[in-house]
Design brief:
Layout lengths: L1 H29 L6 H19 L3 H22 L8 H22 L4 E2 L8 E4 L2 E4 H23 L1 H11 L1 H6 L4 H23 L4 E2 L3 H16 L4 H21 L7 H13 L14
Antiparallel strand pairs: 1-4, 2-3
Helix pairs in contact: 1-5, 1-8, 1-9, 1-10, 2-3, 2-4, 2-8, 2-9, 3-8, 5-6, 5-8, 6-8, 9-10, 9-11, 10-11
Length: 287
């Protein structure tokens, strides 16, 4: 029982961590929060569902195609929408919320009822001692590790990744040394969309998917980012896994009615006690 709780909690936490990375990537660059991230996750789930049903792709090609398509959509939306908003903090927040609502209702037009996601990760039940869990849980955890490793390599060892880090550190100085700042910001949005869409495909086979599934996941992912430090990628990962484990433990040993409460209690405590998160640092906010 304990092993099932741990595996399930880590898998849920990985989803929160991946979606939370989208919050972190944008915040590191603009010092603003994209509250459409949860709905981007939802839209990515349905993008994966549509591609899987139409082309019958296996798991790995499906993840790669969804990642590329979501990246391009993020770049386009940054150019058409976000670029006109991020010069004012309040306007950006309202605009991102509006975009999220627009995404949700667009998906609702085509998928008004919850539907099953294709079992692209298999349906085998894995046994570990007395614990039993779906093979898809291992895919979630394994893909999260691979994704985080790839992001680390991208930011640490590629010229483009270092350019994005420079813009996140100081966009003005980065621009003076030749970095294309608008392109870097567009790529940051593309990455935030891509990771959220991957999270949607990973979680899709475990549940029925619906147009409102991004609401709760988005809030929990934001809580994970705040818990770990919204400007810290390692902190967001730690925060996501911690929240996944704690809510699974609370749902099992206390009551399932309180499972969703865990993330919001953590969010409130961190905002009051340590607003910068466990691993985050203090950063100025644009107004």
């Amino acid at each position: 029982m304990l092993m099932q709780i741990i595996v399930g909690g880590i898998a849920s936490g990985c989803i929160y961590a991946i979606v939370g990375l989208g919050f972190t990537l944008v915040y590191r660059t603009l010092k603003m929060v994209n509250f459409a991230q949860g709905h981007v996750f939802m839209a990515g789930t349905f993008l994966g569902l549509t591609i899987a049903n139409k082309f019958s792709l296996p798991a790995v090609p499906l993840l790669l195609v969804v990642m590329v398509v979501a990246f391009l959509i993020g770049v386009v939306l940054e150019r058409l929408i976000f670029r006109k908003l991020y010069h004012n903090h309040d306007v950006f927040i309202v605009g991102s919320i509006g975009l999220g609502i627009a995404l949700m209702n667009t998906v609702r037009l085509f998928f008004p009822e919850p539907i099953p996601f294709p079992k692209v990760f298999g349906e085998r039940i894995v046994k570990f001692g007395d614990a039993q869990f779906q093979e898809a849980y291992l895919w979630v955890i394994g893909c999260t590790v691979i994704l985080v490793a790839l992001l680390h390599c991208f930011f640490a060892y590629t010229r483009n990744g270092r350019a994005l880090r420079a813009v996140a550190a100081d966009a003005e100085i980065a621009g003076t040394v030749g970095v294309n700042v608008p392109m870097a910001i567009a790529q940051t949005f593309g990455l935030s969309f891509a990771v959220a869409a991957v999270a949607g495909v990973l979680i899709g086979p475990l549940y029925f998917v619906s147009f409102d599934m991004g609401d709760m996941v988005g809030l929990k992912a934001f809580s994970a980012a705040v818990f770990g430090g919204i400007n810290s990628i390692p902190g967001t990962i730690v925060g996501g896994i911690a929240i996944g484990l704690l809510e699974n433990i609370a749902g099992t040993y206390i009551s399932s009615a309180y499972k969703d409460l865990v993330a919001f209690v953590i969010l409130l405590v961190m905002l009051v006690w340590r607003p910068n998160g466990l691993l985050g640092t203090s950063t100025p906010v644009k107004v």
